[in-house]
Amino acid sequence: MDRTCQYCPINKNGQQIFASITRGTYQGLIVNATGRYHTAYGNDVYQINRFFTINAGVRWEQERIAGSLLAYTFTGSWSPRVGINIDPMGDHKSKLFFNFGRNYWAMPLDAAIRQLGNEQDDTSYAFAPVINSDGSITIIPDAAHTLNGLARSTNSSGVVSKFGAPSFASSTGEGIIPGTKGEYEDEYVIGVERELAPSIVVKARYTDRRLPRVIEDIGSQSVEGSTITSNFNGGISNPTKSTDIAVNEQESTYTQAQFLAANPGGNPSASNYKAPVTGCTAANDTFFAVGGPFIDGRNNPVGGACFLNLDTMDGPGPGKNGADGQPDGFVNPVRRYNAVEFEVDKRFSNHWLALINFRWGNLWGNYEGAYRNDNGQSDPGISSLFDFTTGKLNLLGDQFTPGYISTDRRTVGNLFVSYNVGSDTHFIHGARGLTFGAGWRGQSGVPLSILGDHPAYLNQGEIPIGGRGAGGRTPSTMQLDLHLDYPVPLGSRLERYRLKLAMDMFNATNSQFQTGRVQYTQTSATSVGVPPPLNLDYNRPTSFQTPFYARGSVRFEF
Question: Quick one: which H or E segment has residue 223?
């Protein structure tokens, strides 16, 4: 809602509304991107005796990606694999096993298009939408409906600000920092299997997957530092807590109270500015760049910062020295999955089969992978996660703090049963060949977070507040699915031909558990340092389990 927007239409609730587009491409540039992948693999199986077998191999991989401006080759990607199987009794009914494998990630071409090419980024547009007679909204992105630069207010005090100006920028040639290697995952599995009867096998296994190295684009500035200097050093790399690509910022911070104490009224000019803390000047204080104090994801003011080494920080160039021998302020990316799984497998015999398994696991870290569920970003290898260092104001909240990742699901249980009416049973003749089955799944919920807008990019719902999972979890869910199929022979002379009639029923009990909730605390921000409205829909359900539906089919077999 906007309280003073002269051009914003009023919805049926009497609220003035506007539409915003955080990022878009408004120029039809053509970006050519290519990728080439080479692999070689060797493997051998060595059976020492009837008790021990070793399966070992190694895979070599090399990927080259290129955009219209730049190209890069990821070299040195060696993937060892080893499996050790032990049959303790030598009767082929038991197995103790250990497997290790390293799997390299083939980087998609999104980065080649956006960072090795010349993609145009146009951001922070605001529009006055058109409210149709049926209540729906149409957005017309033309000059007549553009709100950028016009007056608005977003708080009850009536303080008027403006819709920020859009930004036109090109992603031209950020490039990949030399020495960057491919991203890979290591997986360890240890388990045991035992055949209890000719058709019954029990299994137990433990799995550990982790990402020792990731590919992400990084930047040399903190969020607050990016508002006061255009100096920038960065590119696509393998970020860690020891990464050093720039001269570190020498940052002196102050609270809003300190600034107001030195500058009553809170709106000084450069000529009558008073330093809130030692070292601040009108030239190095972010107040003038932001227009006020920075805010956090709950619209609380957190103060500002002064930078004492503007001439040397943030990378190469006149008077800038690049790396300074000190870590820049990133963290180690963490993504670790652990799971214990138990399974009973009743193979098909005596007309029926069954599979029962239960898994307990967790997914822990600060890095989700190629897709970010927290902000819905699908930019593999170039997400916004490591674009800024932490800085002293901690405007990135708990973004770098490990926690339970949004797809963490602690427990999952499955039961699948199928029965076939054979010709040797006592069922009536017309039922022979009928197959019916049931599948049941129960699973715990996933973490919910309290997400504030990104303080620089203004992306909605990106910065976790209070740690990942601070918003609780979605409810556990259960679902029952049913299946029937029946063969219909096409006469004694056509024994090779038949029709198979089938019916699948999904969510047969019509359960409708909640599967998602609104996690962002703010509506779209307007400009850096301007508090956006708090989101009144926070924690509202957004998605539910798919209700009951059925699917029938007729198949001709020969």
Answer: helix 223-226
Beta strands in 214-283 (DSSP E): 216-219, 234-237, 251-254
pLDDT tens, residue by residue, 309-360: 887 775 555 445 578 889 999 999 999 999 999 999 999 998 999 999 999 9
Rounded to the nearest 10 degrees, how much is the dihedral formed by the CA atoms of 226, 232, 233, 234?
60
State the Cα–Cα distance between residues 62 and 425, nearest whole angstrom: 58
pLDDT at residue number 433: 85
pTM value?
Answer: 0.82
User: Are the beta carbons of 537 and 464 closer than 8 angstroms?
Assistant: no
Strand residue runs (E) in 427-513:
435-443, 451-452, 463-464, 477-489, 498-506
* Beta strands 411-420 and 184-197, pairing class: unpaired
- The rounded distance, in Å, linking the Cα atoms of 396 and 388 is 9
Sign of CA dihedral 284, 287, 289, 290: positive
Question: How do residues 416-458 score in pLDDT, each as one tens digit?
Answer: 999 998 766 666 666 788 999 999 999 999 999 999 888 888 7
Per-residue pLDDT at 32: 81
Q: Highest mean pLDDT range out of 153-162, 371-380, 489-498?
A: 371-380
CB of 81 within 8 A of CB of 100? yes
487-511 b/e (C-beta count within 10 Å ≥ 16 → b): eeeeeeeeeeebeeeeebbbbbeee
* 3-state SS, residue 211: strand
What are the structural domain ranges in the chain? Answer: 1-24+125-167, 335-557
DSSP codes, 332-392: ---EEEEEEEEEEEEEEETTEEEEEEEEEEEEEES---SSBTTTTB--TT--STTSSB--S
What pLDDT score was predicted for residue 2? 44
Instruction: Give 250-259 pLDDT, tens digit per residue.
Output: 999 999 999 9
**Residues pairing with 493 in the sheet:** none
